[in-house]
């Protein structure tokens, strides 16, 4: 039996795809193979959603609180302290801390500028201020090389110059996203558990199978 070529092998034969025509006939054409990292990325996302959210050993309410709080913190410019803040905010309301800390990673070095630049522009628009140039904004979140603490400290010092519009815009966007996140998560977790296990309380089951 011939060995299958890797999905991301540039020399691998293209995938054969059959397309059904309106007259009932089939036309075969070839499609490029998707890179392996697409499957790897999707696999990690799927594993997180299923095992860390849908099957988390907690109630749908507490899981939804964790998602909502984590999303709210992720959309605030709390660079370097998102996870700690998420856990601290979950404590008084009994939200799921693990889920919240994981959701806080929505803001990361790749997404910082795409998230906070529109928030900053929104704050400037509301306050009637002129926005700083794009590159100056990027430099705030990517200071010169140094230790992690040095870079975070430099970012916080630089953010003080745009503190008002950045935090105003971020707070508005974070609240708009976080509130529906709770209701959507609570309903999805409840629906998934009832459909798959017939109960929302997984602690009543001897074991949750994959």
Walkthrough of the structure:
The chain is elongated and about 55 Å long. The chain has eight helices and two strands, in the order E-E-H-H-H-H-H-H-H-H. Helix 5 packs across helix 8. It has one domain (47-198). 23% of the residues are buried. 59% of the residues lie in helices and 6% in strands. The chain has 210 residues and is mainly alpha-helical.
Helical amount among residues, as a percent range?
Answer: 55-70%
Poorly predicted runs = 1-13
Biggest sheet: strands, sense, closure?
A: 2 strands, antiparallel
| Number of DSSP strand runs | 2
**Spatial shape:** elongated
Helix count from the secondary structure assignment: 8
How far apart the termini lie comes to 31 Å
Q: So what's the oligomer here?
A: single chain
Radius of gyration: 23 Å
- Which range does the strand content fall in? 5-15%
What is the succession of H and E elements?
EEHHHHHHHH
Spatial strand arrangement across the major sheet: 1-2
Mean pLDDT: 80
Q: Which structural class is indicated by helix and strand composition?
A: mainly alpha
Number of domains: 1
Question: How are the secondary structure elements laid out?
Answer:
Blueprint: E1 15-20, E2 26-31, H1 36-54, H2 60-74, H3 82-93, H4 97-103, H5 112-127, H6 134-141, H7 148-159, H8 163-197
Antiparallel strand pairs: 1-2
